[in-house]
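Bench log. Compound arrived from synthesis this morning; before running ITC I wanted a structural hypothesis for how iron/sulfur cluster sits in the protein. Inputs:
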Amino acid sequence: MSELDVLWQPIEIGNVTLKNRVWVSAHDAGYSEDNILSDRYVAYLEERAKGGAGTVLPGVQIVHPSGSAAYGNGMDGWRPEVVEQYRKLSDAVHRHGTKVFLQIGHWGAEGDAGQLLDAQHELLAPSGIRSIVSGQEPRTIEANDIEAIIAGYVQTAANAQDGGVDGVEIHAGHGYLICQFLSPLTNQRTDEYGGSVENRCRFMLEVTRAIKERCGADFPIGTRISLDELMDLPGGITADEGEEVVRVLHASGLFSYFSVTGGNSHTVHKWIAPMTSESHANFVPLAARVKKLVDVPVITVGRITEITQAAEIVRRGDADIVAMTRAHIADPEIVSKASSGRVDEIRPCIGVNQGCLRRIARGQMISCTQNPVTGRESQWGAGSVTPAAVPKKVLVVGGGPSGLKSAELAARRGHEVVLIEQADALGGQLRYASRLPHRAEWAIMVRTLERAVARHGVDVRLNTEATVDLIEELGADEIVVATGSRFARTGFTPVRGDRATIPGLEDPLDPLEVIDDPERCGERVLIVDDKGDYVPLGLAEILVTAGHTVEIVSRHFFIGEGTLLTGDLMWAVPRLAAAGVKFTPQTLVEQVDGTEVTLLDMWTFTPRVQEADTVVLCMGKLPTVQLYKDLRLGGRSVHRIGDCVAPRGVDEASYEGEMVGRSV
Ligand SMILES: Cc1cc2nc3c(=O)[nH]c(=O)nc-3n(C[C@H](O)[C@H](O)[C@H](O)COP(=O)(O)O)c2cc1C
Ligand code: SF4
């Protein structure tokens, strides 16, 4: 008996049998077309079904026009044309023995009234309290609104049933409409829908009863609930109050499962927790509390990234089913790999939230920083890596993420692949990124890529400097240059395109030098940030922890601006502030004179002189491109990928590596 077997036991939700305990909870991937679930979404979820997940849920299906539009445009569920799409989805996942539930919901005050030009609408909320996130002002829900919205829930559930979907999940969490009814923060009604717990549950129970009546007793209805809104301030639902809500809901006998999450729109960084949070399995204690209250299946969630951890949760009895959602965005084959003894081949989600959360928050389709196949399944999905017509010798120069990815794909296609790397280890700048405080999971990405190239027989040569002569000697048919980038040391900023450097700046340090040896810095350190990414935050934490006085100066509106949408900011910035790091946003460095640094307010141009012993520059990177140019001079055909094209992020590196590896 394997320790994982507990996960492969079937379980009943109502009269629906799930083949295993691995669940992919609802997640909007931004794949809607004309605001309904698209073929791309079907292909994406079928890939997870093929990979063995027991149950999959697409993102929330919106039940009424007043609830439309938020992240990534959203998906309407009430419209008749969705039935055909739901049918495609249920057929696709059922082919692999997987079940599909549809989460149905309404954004309430957290929608976006004007996002859809042709469907601009007013927002509706229980007490007309404005959105915590956008500040948009909703109208208070009136009696006839309640009727109309309930009708929308019923229509959406009926559409799901007509489309062959196995059941629906009432979204009662994350601060959206039903959560707004449940929470004293957002429900200040004095009628029968406000006040006591029973009254706050009334709307949800009316919705659920109406669906039961329409869809019948055999059609399972579950719910996803924020047991605790995680506000850390008085007012929101606490776990004790959440238990009261669960008691009332469960007593109705209407719900076939409870999926236990936490948080609301103000606390997204806790329920889609980023790498920097270092939290894993964070909602298991909440699920365990609900387990004690109900006799239907309980689902847990929250950065469960290791299959062994999922098994342990079920074995302990803390939950019956485990959602591994981003884990499946990163690797759709978790179950098939784990159940066939290939746990080492799983690509664990590292919580970096760039390819998934940040993209949806920007209104883009999601992918994955580590797995560029995500979202591109109809082109690159399972079975699409086929042997090359003519096996060749492929030489990859550079062992960062783009080089490693291209080497892996080329080797999987049967090419003979040699990868040369000048450092004594693989991973490129990711190795440094993993040495920043709270960012160790970057090393998991490196380890996963390393294992993949080893598994597919790539000949890796470390400590090997690539020269044109060596490349000639190796005699490859295809050359992939992935030589990366280096941090710029000039102080150039596009806001001062008139000058190449900061006048008077001498011997600044770059981020890698600080990571290697923080003691190269003097007592007072000024970190100059021109990118807004995590690097200056991480360096500041290293330095302040080592006893330095640290100030971050940035031209951005606030410090850590680029880390807001991944949710890292909310973990890192308070920590730095508490440690005494000084934040100076909207400021440029005008000049340096010894230890005197003149700072300039971006908008008033008021100067201020600040003393600093060391200046650290986080001001972009420059491509390492000489080798590429030399090879091209010799007339060779060369592929160039990753940062040596233009220094960007890991997502682009992975994508370009995948693309070239599939095409050489
Ligand atoms: C891109 C993205 C979209 C999401 N959309 C939804 C959604 O529509 N409904 C929902 O209940 N949760 C949504 N979630 C939350 C996930 O279901 C899940 O609770 C969260 O990602 C934490 O689980 P994990 O660590 O296993 O990913 C979304 C998460 C992500 C990353
Ligand atoms: S982008 Fe990062 S957080 Fe999102 S699924 Fe991929 S590895 Fe996980």
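What the model suggests: Residues 25-28, 59-60, 103, 171, 174, 224, 261, 271-272, 301-304, 323-327, 356-357, 360, 366 surround flavin mononucleotide (ligand 1) (CB under 6 Å). The mean pLDDT is 96.
ITC booked for Thursday regardless.
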